[in-house]
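Give me structure tokens for this 560-residue protein.
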Amino acid sequence: MKILNLIIVCALTIFVPSSVYSQSLPVGTFGIEDYYRRAQLSGTADTNVSFTVRPFFPHQIDNDYINNYTDSNANKYKLISLKRLWQSNDEKLQVSVLPLTVQTQFTSHHPYGWNDGAMIPAKGPQAFVSAGIFARFGPLTIQLKPEFVTAENSDFETFNKKSLVSTFVYYYSIYNNIDLPARFGTETYTKVYWGQSSIRLNYKAISFGLSTENLWWGPGIQNSLLMSNTAPGFPHLTLNTLRPLQTPIGSFEAQAIAGNLSSSNYPPLESDYVYHGTDLYLPKPDYWRYLNGIIATWQPRWIPGLFLGFDHSSVYYVKDLDRVTDYLPLFASDVSRSRSIRLTSLFMRWLWTQEHAEIYFEWGQYNNTESALQQSLAPNNVRAYTFGIRKLLPLGSSKDENILLGIEATQLQENSLNNILSGDEWYVNRFIRQGYTTEGQELGAGLGPGGNLQTVNVSWVKGIKKLGLQFERYVHNNDLYYLTYTNTQDYRRHWVDLSIAAIGEWGGKNLIFNTKVQVIKSLNYQWYLPTDPSKPVISPYVNGGDAFNLQLQAGVTYLF
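Here you go.
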């Protein structure tokens, strides 16, 4: 009954005037999105916006920011002045043009990267195009921004065939329970998505609607434990705030969603592998997957710049939902919970505007069936975390010219071999066998199960302009490593990528350019280490199966 009342209230708002435009800024928008976040560090943007519930809506930023910020293009980047295609005589119906984005990518040896939305992990060239329109009629808004992606999807060795047979057995024991194909088929990949599209009813600071937009939950920049733009957006109902809600105890931002997840329908590896006459690949059931989730962020009025938050999401096969409450976040029955994927995290982001810095942290637990008290006593059980810090260092006399320093670390690796053996590792699930994915990519951190990442960024920034270097250390699925090689005491097989990237973002007139050149050295690629009969098994002098990888990215956004 409460749900019905909520729907009625939202429907009645169509007759109520509203000043909220509510076009969203898509998650991962090059240049513009981080431009706003950096402006918070410098104290020139509204610090009430948490950046932990995205996409955010540019009208969340205080109008004083537009008037005071030194960058003459700030108004255009705010997306207030979208080019109007047409409006009715009474100006109640308005139709505007959304920015056109073209993004390209080339990877030389094997797939690499995450947080690229509709793009897929693939070798070779890849291209992405998105454009659209935005229409507003009173409180009703329609944002139509489809996405087109095509990838050559070239052949590469998806797993070293010289690996030990037992390695394949352990590999499938994990990837049979998560939908993360090494390669998306054997042909050129082409697909069209609804992309960053939505239809909403908006009343003051509240919005209700249907969306296929990418979501980002939490304070992380490189990774988010529950929601990121590594995978394409998925269709979902959303009830969310458009701007922080002010109360006597502080401001709040929140979102609740209910959505449908899709499978890739590709196996983990290109070929099936047989062990003692048994096919190692187990096809995944084609059941309808339902996701519900909720996030809330609180900024206490007594501590400006501090944001405290909580988020939770669950995934079920619809056939296993027995009661109406099973469709609602946090209210599922014990039976349906035992047949689901559950992720929960707590996070904080603290802005220190006087120091031009921020610190943030996210800690999460995965499929933990213990009570809250037991969880608090054993916080390392099935946990993951992200930690980061950023600081602006003034450069010269220009107000908006700075050196930006950033460090972020994410760890998804399980710290208990027993949990790995029982299949309790991040994003993997023995019952929901697609795991925590959609369209064959992670909903959360793109590192995948058992992955760890440390990133250091050093950049020159001025307004929307950014030139810098990025250093990364990425450890691939350490859970698989410990599952496979612990008994052999072979400590040399960790698959570790060391990389350095030159990054540039530049804006001028109606164009925003971005580019990235990343050089990657893969140590022990695919956990493979050749054996040398003349040396002991654990000899450190055997060279691993290393690989050199080059990734090039370039794109442009045109603001009409």
